[in-house]
Amino acid sequence: MAMDAITPNKDKARAEPVKRPTVQEAEEAVRTLIAWAGDDPQREGLLDTPKRVVNAYKEWFSGYDEDPVKYLSRTFEDVQGYDDIVMLRSIDVESHCEHHMAPFLGKAYVAYMPSAAVVGISKLARVVEIFSKRLQTQETMTAQICDAITESLAPMGTAVLIDAVHECMSTRGVHHKDVSTITTQFTGVFKSDADLRNRFLRMAGKG
Ligand SMILES: Nc1nc2c(ncn2[C@@H]2O[C@H](COP(=O)(O)OP(=O)(O)OP(=O)(O)O)[C@@H](O)[C@H]2O)c(=O)[nH]1
Ligand SMILES: [Zn+2]
Description:
There is one protein chain. This protein has 207 residues and is an alpha+beta fold. It is built from 8 helices and 7 strands. The chain is elongated. The protein binds guanosine-5'-triphosphate and zinc ion (ZN).
């Protein structure tokens, strides 16, 4: 999808799409932040930095240009009657918090109980990646991953757990380095069946 088509995280208060600035405008904003940090944007070592930062942003925030549902649309039905949990453990999460634009890093655990069809397992990791490559709160991201799987696959239930360390808490502010944050979202049988939910948590190593 083109870089000028932005699909922001849902914000019900905003009706109009956000207009993406030009590369030149984005680079100028980085020069402003360099000066705000106290350095000279014209210093030789910093001359190419705005270009590098803008390119890094393209990668860190590439999730605005991707539609997770697209990845979940191809399913497979021939699984010989398989009817138990499908779970991906320890999916890397590299995201940025929407409050400080600081990284938060961790792991996601994603499971669903198939109703009929299953999906290619790599697509679940892609869904995590797409939502993580946006400005996020961990809670929003956990709910978005769960919703995308639930809406696309209509499984018997979906379970998502994210365990992450927020650099806005470890490198600034309260400076707590060893605190990780766990968020969970459960639907369907994972919500109604405590034994199944506990099985998921044990399989994630959190039970
Ligand atoms: N719930 C939630 N909070 C987050 C997340 N990422 C960062 N935060 C918190 O967002 C809050 C923002 O609080 P503010 O008081 O507005 O900002 P601040 O003055 O920079 O806060 P401190 O981080 O405490 O210095 C902080 O408590 C952060 O720890 C997240 O994913 N979920
Ligand atoms: Zn933060």
